[in-house]
From TrEMBL, chain A:
Residues 88-268 form the ABC transmembrane type-1 domain. The chain crosses the membrane at residues 32-51, 63-85, 97-114, 126-148, 154-173, 194-225, 245-271. Keywords: Cell membrane, Membrane, Transmembrane, Transmembrane helix, Transport. The keyword Transport applies. It holds the Pfam family BPD_transp_1. It is a multi-pass membrane protein. Its main location: membrane. It is found in: Cell membrane. Belongs to the binding-protein-dependent transport system permease family. This is ABC transporter permease.
UniProtKB/TrEMBL annotation, chain B:
One of its GO terms (molecular function) is ATP binding. Residues 12-243 form the ABC transporter domain. The keyword Transport applies. InterPro entries: AAA+_ATPase (IPR003593), ABC_transporter-like_ATP-bd (IPR003439), ABC_transporter-like_CS (IPR017871), ABC_transporter_ATP-bind (IPR050166), P-loop_NTPase (IPR027417). Belongs to the ABC transporter superfamily. This is ABC transporter ATP-binding protein. It comes from Shinella yambaruensis. Pfam families: ABC_tran (PF00005).
Length: 283, 256
């Protein structure tokens, strides 16, 4: 569906660009929307157009960079035939479980660590050490400990997504304006009330920064994990298609990953808008 | 009545109050043996150069800091820590940005366990008192500095304290807004039965608002001074008595 949109807007853009005053009634509205649309998506459209033209014109090798319509067709075929559905499901499951676990552990732990100096001081050096150690470098260790199955894949994603959430939450709690806490104190608020009514809501925007960062990391690690010792998943399909020189399918899987990333980010942004209406400039 | 005298509301007694901070390992006295009785319903202004301890005194009265020695009695009872009979208005509005104006004003009622319905009704009344009824559902970032401070004032008044403690509440506002707010505070205090203690560095504001002005010296061996301002309200800033008080204060600070 989304690629159809992309294609039709792409076409519309071309038509408008070549003869703008073609449809006078529609143009009035389009003229109002077009500048902001172009400012936001103009470069993406230009990139797609360049890809399509260079591939069909033979400026690049079309066997390595197939034209967009062939990639889109490959994606459509594999989705319609159900060939990729299983891969999508398993990939979503892996990253979903890992992300959920990172949220379930990272946010509460971050809330505690942000408030309790002693806990933070004790754990911070360890955290910094782990954070600086690439999760991918630790993947062999996880495989050694947990086997080559699902557990090690989920765990490596969990490991990599935990830190952005944890650190963002700690940062959010620590940045809460002490003056607001003091204000709450003068109205008789106890520790729990201060936590619930001041510290928690004040940390939400920072937590969302961590969540969005983690969602991206989850997909990144998912692919890496699926490239090693997997026989299913989108990451596996990218590798497998390349081995078998099914280049359109390879790009189709990559496109799918990009779309998943965009969807995950959009969902989080929507959720953030709902929860943080107060911090939106135009709420 | 033959029983104990009817409960006094909002009387503050300060006895032998002292406080010092530690600076480079040496004690730095901030308040030294302050004694003062603030009458019920009175408005007292505290002025003094920076470093005179006026804010520290207010924070001790608010229960946000502990004194090293001496005690504070409210309605005859020694107090420590914060209490429901006191509300503080800070220099910054200190509104919770995720709550609407109405919810912010209701905050102090919520934390004190007033039912949701009653808190809302009471908050609405005080939002109206400070003239922000059309902004009830606005968020703090949509308000100007003066409006935000009004919300802070409404929040403090909504808990119906006996004593209102104000720490340079208008210090961050521009001159025009400030004068408007001073007039508004006079009107509000006339209607609300509350003792007010105001820390300010604005001598004119002190004369305009206060019944008495406490002047804290910077040198700790000098005694604090008290000046009575016996002028009818609303006060005329250009009246000869007003100007005379201002000159008196300026002289005390060595500025005239």
């Amino acid at each position: 569906m989304s690629y159809e949109n992309v294609n039709s807007t792409l076409g519309a853009d071309f038509r408008l660009a070549s003869r703008p005053p073609a449809a006078p009634r529609v143009t009035a509205r389009l003229n109002a929307l077009l500048p902001s649309f172009l400012a936001r998506y103009g470069l993406v459209l230009a990139f797609l157009a360049l890809w399509q033209i260079s591939s069909t014109q033979g400026w690049v090798n079309p066997a390595v960079f197939p034209p967009l319509h062939i990639i889109v067709a490959a994606l459509w075929d594999s989705l319609a035939s159900g060939a990729l559905i299983d891969d999508i499901a398993i990939s979503l499951q892996r990253s979903g479980i890992a992300f959920a676990a990172a949220v379930a552990i990272g946010i509460p732990l971050g809330l505690v660590m942000g408030q309790a100096k002693i806990v933070e001081q004790a754990l911070d050096p360890l955290l910094q050490f782990f954070r600086q150690t690439s999760a991918l470098a630790l993947y062999p260790v996880f495989i050694l400990l947990l086997g080559l199955g699902e557990t090690s894949k989920v765990f490596v994603i969990f490991w990599a997504t935990l830190f952005p959430i944890l650190l963002a939450t700690i940062g959010g709690v620590k940045e809460v304006d002490g003056k607001l806490v003091e204000m709450a104190r003068t109205y008789g608020a106890g520790r729990l009330t201060i936590f619930r009514r001041v510290i928690l809501p004040a940390s939400v925007p920072a937590i969302f920064v961590g969540l969005r960062l983690s969602a991206t990391t989850a997909l990144l690690l998912l692919i890496a994990a699926e490239m090693i010792g997997a026989n299913k998943g989108i990451g596996f399909q990218v590798m497998n298609a390349q081995y078998n020189f099914q280049i359109p399918l390879m790009f189709a899987a990559i496109l799918l990953l990009a779309l998943l990333g965009l969807i995950a980010n959009a969902v989080l942004v929507l959720l953030q808008k709902k929860l943080c209406r107060w911090s939106q400039p135009n709420a | 009545m033959s029983l104990a005298p009817a409960a006094i509301r909002g009387e503050v007694t300060i006895r032998h109050l002292s406080k010092s901070y530690t600076l480079d390992g040496r004690p730095l006295p901030v308040l030294d043996n302050i004694n003062l009785k603030i009458r019920s319903g009175e408005s007292l202004a505290i002025v003094g150069a920076s470093g005179s301890g006026k804010t520290t005194l207010l924070r001790i009265l608010a229960g946000l800091e502990d004194a090293d020695g001496g005690e504070v009695l409210i309605d005859g009872k020694a107090v420590s820590g914060v209490g429901a009979e006191r509300a503080v208005i800070f220099q910054e509005p200190r509104l919770l940005p995720w709550l609407t104006v109405l919810e912010n004003v209701a905050f102090g009622l919520d934390t004190r366990g007033v039912s949701r319905e009653e808190a809302k009704a009471r908050a609405r009344r005080y939002v109206q008192l400070v003239g922000l009824q059309s902004f009830e559902n606005a968020y703090p970032r949509q308000l100007s500095g003066g409006m935000a401070q009004r919300v802070g004032i409404a929040r403090a008044l909504a808990v119906q304290p006996e004593i209102l403690l104000l720490d340079e509440p208008l210090g961050a506002l521009d001159a025009m807004t400030k004068i408007g707010m001073q007039q508004e505070l006079t009107r509000i205090w006339r209607d609300e039965d509350v003792t007010t203690i105001l820390v300010t560095h604005d001598l004119e504001e002190a004369i305009y608002l206060a019944d008495r002005i406490l002047i804290l010296p910077r040198e700790k061996n000098a005694a604090p001074r008290l000046i009575e301002i016996d002028l009818p309200r609303p006060r005329d800033r250009s009246a000869p008595e007003f100007v005379r008080h201002r000159e008196e204060l300026l002289t005390l600070f060595g500025l005239h």
